[in-house]
Amino acid sequence: MSAAAAGRDPLESTRFEAVIGLEVHVQLLTRTKMFCRCEARFGTEANALTCPVCLGLPGSLPCINRRAVESTVRVGLAFGSEIPLLTKFDRKSYFYPDLPKGYQISQKDDPICKGGRVEFFVDGEIRVARLVRIHLEEDAGKNIHVEGRPESWVDLNRAGTPLMEVVSEPDLRTPREAGDYMRMLRQVMLYLGVSDCNMEEGSLRCDCNVSTRLRGASHLETRTEIKNLNSFLNVEKALEHEIARQIRLRETGREAEIVQETRLYDPDRGETRSMRGKEEAHDYRYFPEPDLAPLVFSPEWIDGLRATLPELPLVRLGRFQEDLGLSAYHADQLVRDKEIADYFERCVESYRQPQSVGNWVLNALREELRSRGVGIEDIGVAPERFAELVRAVDDGAVSTQKARDVLRAMADSGRPAAELIREMGVEQISDDSFLRGVVQDVIAAHPGPVEDVRRGKRNSINFLVGQVMRRTKGQANPAMAMSLIDELIGSPPAE
Amino acid sequence: MEIRDRIRRGEMSALEAVDEALRQLDVVNPRLQAALQIFPDGARTAAAAIDRRLAAGEDAGPLAGVPFTVKDNFCTLEGHTTAGSRILESFASPYDATAVRKLKEAGAVCVAKTNLDEFGMGSSTENSAFHVTRNPWKTTHVPGGSSGGAAALAVSTGGMIHLGSDTGGSIRQPSACCGASGLKPTYGRVSRYGLVAFASSLDQIGPIQSSALDCALVLETIAGADPMDSTSRDLPVPRYADEAQQDIRGLRLGVPAEYFPEGIEAEVEEKVRAAIEVFREMGAEVRDVSLPHTRYANPAYVLVSAAEASSNLARYDGVHYGRRSVSASGLVDMYCRSRGEGFGAEVKRRILIGTFVLSSGYYDAYYLTALRVRNLIRQDFEKVYREVDAVVCPTSPVPAFPLGDRIDDPLKLYAVDVLTVPANLASLPGMSIPCGFTSEALPVGLQIYGRPMQDEIVLRLACAYQARTDHHLRAPPVCGWRGGEEGG
Amino acid sequence: MDVTDELVAKIARLSRLALGEEESAEMKEHFRKVLGFVSELESLDLEGVAPSLFALDASNVQREDEPAPSLPAGAALANAPAAHPPFFLVPRIVGDAGEPEMSP
Ligand SMILES: [Mg+2]
Ligand SMILES: [Zn+2]
């Protein structure tokens, strides 16, 4: 396991520190593309989701997707960015087969969001990375390089889909921080519902800018850029390798070999390497997109969007700890997924035992979701009903073990816990006088094991509990049965 | 539009109208080379369908059966959309430009696509990759450009609609050269969707006809907001034909001294000044005004239009459509050769200049400077329009010139745009109508500039002038609508 | 400014335009002329004059996020100079390191 995955700082033992800034590209969850009305989805035949606009045919013109703009503003508001009242789009020119117009419509001088800060946890400690900007642009298509063929294939289904770019200041210091920063971005995007953040489909892609310097220095050294990383693990590993490479060069007096360049991470070989030998200097020739009018926002409109923001993960985390008394660990686990956290809160509303409700949501409920392969909205158990089940367990009306069967039956039938507990015959008997009678009968019937217990042979008590369970068809509360046996035999307390 | 009325009254079928148009094209086109493509079969099929609808008593649209041509930089489902370039020689558009679609929905029938300077870059139609077009008044002369094909046909045939495009004068200057009436509407008045872009912030679509009233009728049909063009204005479309026939008494006209520059041909100045007198006689108020930054308009235009063109033409790279070089090795070489072989010299010049002015280190000095000057030009007009309702001036300082005369010196060719580019820089409506002929029997164009979104004032002045004069009624020697015999 | 062969070559490369020798020389000459022609602008005092970035004084032109049909099957490739349906085909995109180059 890599150092990053193990949560260690690979720089701990060196004189150097790393300076990391991330550019994270987030695919927005819209029905249509950024500048045309083709559907923005995947899994269709190549080039089937295209029209004159996203093919860049002669004469075609772009039209701004309102929802993509709103999503970007909402993300900016969530991170405390400034939303300038005027923003515009610009053309960024370069030739590439996945870019049909020869330019990408992006934003240069007037992005939708300026500044902002992302707060996130690293090993339970809060960290902050400032944002430079968040802007909106169109994605490119896909080039497919087929092994052993002298050609490449081009699919433009993704061309023109909305892409948000979140650019951080170089405020991150370790691979782990970079990973956790990106995890927090993902969490917030999911909370806002602006992206599905599906990593396998490349909905979240990251370019890392990284340099190294003597610890404590304040200047910036030459940085390299590692392009197109699409998992948290790859971000962390690529950074580790690149940082290690740079430090190796520094320690051997070869820092001149650290040059500003784009590098590619090869997960198989566990290294980064330079992508182009003699890289052509890029000159993107940005200029304002003349086919689009600028966007002018009113403060009222921005406030209206602010009102649509949900409570964000970190705020909720604090509230779960302070108001509900949850541990940092449990609170963190619960807030990670907004749907789970919402569900949990509704359960707590009808049964105010956050600890046990939290436990049950994180364990039994999540396991049930996993085994069914469904989301929480499709499980078919209303939070109020789920809360009843937890209450039944806490009251001793059903055993922890049986409660899982009950949950499954609730999900199958949609019926309330109490009914199913009765029907399934899994009511737990916690009635003291009834159980006392059963235990007395068992003691009378098994003098040998009783004697063993008196002599301190604890194993035999399990036998006696088993007998109680047998006589009650498994419905006796086992904990109560055990303490009654001890009480009635007068055995020495368990070690 | 006489032909429209005759079809409406049932004196003529749509098919007969289209056949007549095709007959005229047969007579005229071999001499003028004004059309790049003619669609006899498609046009006759479409006309027959209109006739069936008319016979069934259906409403076949306000322009039912009227034949039309479009400059070949409009995307059409018919034929190819070449923009006058080898690089698009075999490109077949899967969609119609919005203006084309609107004409078709109004019942008009596409009969031909007209010649142009490649991608609209030129003022003589000599930059077409396919062939030059000749001036119907004098076939040794250019028809102007870039909408030279449309302007040549507008005066040599009858009963058709012709659409052109204007980035720096490409409707008005050929109209002046050919004695046609051509309107560049206010930027944003007509959707550009489907117009092969040259310079997006300057391009505008408009009609070129033999009369201003016909221009009004066409504008009425093609104007209006289009959800496919974010720069089209969502403002009501006036009934331009009605508006155009209103009285001009009391309208205030400005005559800018800067529009009679050194080097203007004496005959041009003389005819234009005479035309201005006609307006005065009709009750318009004429006064001198100043547009002091006029001389800077052309340099600014050269920079802005080239910058946008370099970007707009980046898509012609031989990857997804259009010409691809067969002799390339590797991707970058494929790009360079496809574009090197596919574009003509003038297009390459503009792409290079445009790339240069946008490139790092030169952007501020050239591109931004040009945009600041553009602002000055706009402010000039804003100021003048506080005092007057329209500006009248020559369209071009020179009448049509001989083929080959200016083509070897691009700057000499750019010079003929000097009086038309301000309208594009300032997003204003501008129109050219014939106001007389030189001693060589070449037409002279009078230009009328209006306030933004007051295209109807421009049309009103043009119609009033044409109600008083007959320059627009004169037929050129090469003329197809008189049964093919050549007059003059 | 001084227009050099290198400048013309650099701009041609950036524009992805292959130019012959004669053409390059002509373009260089053209650059000189155009830069001379536009040098007239240098005489203007543009202090405080904002660049006119948009041709239109409109803003906020946006559309709703509602899908419309894409082109019919096969139409995207109908004009392709080379295709391996359903893909466009281009010469292999190879970087100097001999591996597929990534989008810049
Ligand atoms: Mg980007
Ligand atoms: Zn599309």
Question: How would you concisely characterize the structure shown here?
Answer:
Chain B has 488 residues and is an alpha/beta fold. Chain B is 39% helix and 13% strand. The longest helix of chain C has 18 residues.
Overall morphology of chain C: flat
Poorly predicted ranges of chain B (pLDDT <50, ≥5 residues)?
484-488
CATH architecture of chain B: Alpha-Beta Complex
The major sheet of chain B is characterized as:
11 strands, mixed
Question: What compounds sit in this structure?
Answer: magnesium ion, zinc ion
Strand order of the largest sheet of chain C: 2-3
CATH topology of chain B: Amidase signature (AS) enzymes
| CA(first)-CA(last) distance of chain C | 30 Å
| Number of DSSP helical runs of chain B | 16
Overall radius of gyration of chain B: 21 Å
Rg of chain C over CA atoms, rounded to whole Å, is: 23 Å
Report the average pLDDT across residues of chain C. Answer: 91
Q: Which band does the percent of strand residues of chain B land in?
A: 5-15%
CATH class category of the domain at 5-42 in chain C:
Mainly Alpha
Number of helices, where a helix is a run of at least 4 consecutive DSSP H or I residues of chain C: 2
Descriptive overview:
The complex is a heterotrimer of chains A (495), B (488) and C (104). Chain A has helices at 66-78, 175-192, 232-251, 299-306, 313-322, 328-335, 338-350, 354-372, 383-394, 400-413, 417-423, 432-445, 447-454, 459-471, 478-489, and strands spanning 16-27, 64-65, 86-87, 90-93, 103-106, 113-114, 117-122, 125-138, 142-145, 151-155, 162-168, 204-214, 224-229, 262-266, 271-274, 287-288, 295-296. Chain A is built from 15 helices and 17 strands. Residues 1-7 of chain A have low confidence and may be disordered. With 488 residues, chain B is of the alpha/beta class. Chain B has a single domain, classed as Amidase signature (AS) domain (Amidase signature (AS) enzymes). The radius of gyration of chain B is 21 Å and the shape is globular. Chain C has a domain at 5-42: Orthogonal Bundle (Histone, subunit A), CATH 1.10.20. Chain C has a two-stranded antiparallel sheet with strand order 2-3. Mean pLDDT of chain C is 91; it is low at 96-100. Chain C has helices at residues 5-14, 21-38, and strands spanning 62-63, 83-84, 87-91. Chains B and C meet through helix 10, helix 11, helix 12, helix 13 and helix 14 of B and helix 1, helix 2 and strand 3 of C. Strand 2 (64-65) of chain A pairs parallel with strand 1 of chain C, so a sheet runs across the interface. Bound molecules: magnesium ion and zinc ion. Zinc ion (ZN) binds next to loops of chain A. Magnesium ion binds next to loops of chain A.
